[in-house]
Write a structure and sequence with these properties.
This protein has no helices and 11 strands. With 114 residues, the protein is an all-beta fold.
């Protein structure tokens, strides 16, 4: 059974940085695409960034140039480095792993103050 546990969220001022982590267990981590979504209050969950099993990446336009997704297959961990954070980045961030189905973590709160 796949389990995903996010960490690294918190409160930061605009312009600051955070690094989110997502520790995976119960799967062949390196075989699958993974990524991040986020959900702000009153809004739908939206795609943030994804990384394939061969480390190809893609990003939402709103975070390009500010966020970097990466993975460490030896540690079964996915990362999201977030720089130049803006108040509109405030949301709960969820990691996912895409095998035959999509598995989700429980989410980590990121709050950016102006």
């Amino acid at each position: 059974q796949v389990q995903l546990v996010e960490s690294g969220g918190g409160l930061v001022q605009a312009g600051g940085s955070l690094r989110l982590s997502c520790a995976a267990s119960g799967s062949s981590f390196s075989s699958y695409a993974m990524g991040w979504f986020r959900q702000a209050p009153g809004k739908e969950r939206e795609f943030v960034a994804g990384i394939s099993n061969s480390a190809n990446t893609n990003y939402a336009d709103s975070v390009k140039g500010r966020f970097t997704i990466s993975r460490d297959n030896a540690k079964n961990t996915l990362y999201l480095q977030m720089n130049d954070l803006k108040p509109e980045d405030t949301a709960v961030y969820y990691c996912y792993l895409q095998s035959g189905e999509v598995h989700w973590g429980q989410g980590t709160q990121v709050t950016v103050s102006s």
